[in-house]
Amino acid sequence: MERWEQYEVWRLSPGNSRWEFVAAFRDFDVASAVARQREYGLRLVRAVYEGNKLAEHHVLAEIGRTRQTA
After folding, report:
1. Does the structure show a pLDDT above 80 at 69?
2. What is the pTM (predicted TM-score) of this model?
3. Which tops the pLDDT comparison, 21 or 62?
4. Number of structural domains the chain divides into
5. How many Cβ atoms are within 10 Å of 43's Cβ, its own excluded?
6. Which structural domain, as residue segments, surrounds residue 56?
7. Is the confidence at residue 40, as pLDDT, over 50?
8. Is 41 within 8 Å of 11 (Cβ atoms)?
């Protein structure tokens, strides 16, 4: 079975209820550049697949909103 990896960008859905897939890239530098364009609520993930099934999922970076102070 073929084993391959990709870097995925996920964003926090409106209302902060769940993570939504944005895009996938074979190259980390491209995925990182796309992720940097977002302001908040994002994850950069390294996903490894065997065939069409997800075998590993590693969150490389998670950026959320900054805290609001009163």
Report:
1. no
2. 0.80
3. 21
4. 1
5. 19
6. 3-63
7. yes
8. yes
